Amino acid sequence: MTKPLKIIFDFSCPYCYLAWSYFKALKQTESLADEWFSWEIHPEVPKSGSPLQEVVQVADMAERRQRLNGLGEPVGVKPGEKVFVPNTRLALCALEFAREQQKQHAWIDAVYQVSFVGQKNIGDIDVLLDIAREIKLDTAALRQALESEKYLPLLLANDQWCMGQKIEWVPTVLDADKRVIEGAFTYAEFVAAMREKVLNRQD
Question: What is the pTM for the complete model shown?
Answer without folding.
Answer: 0.96
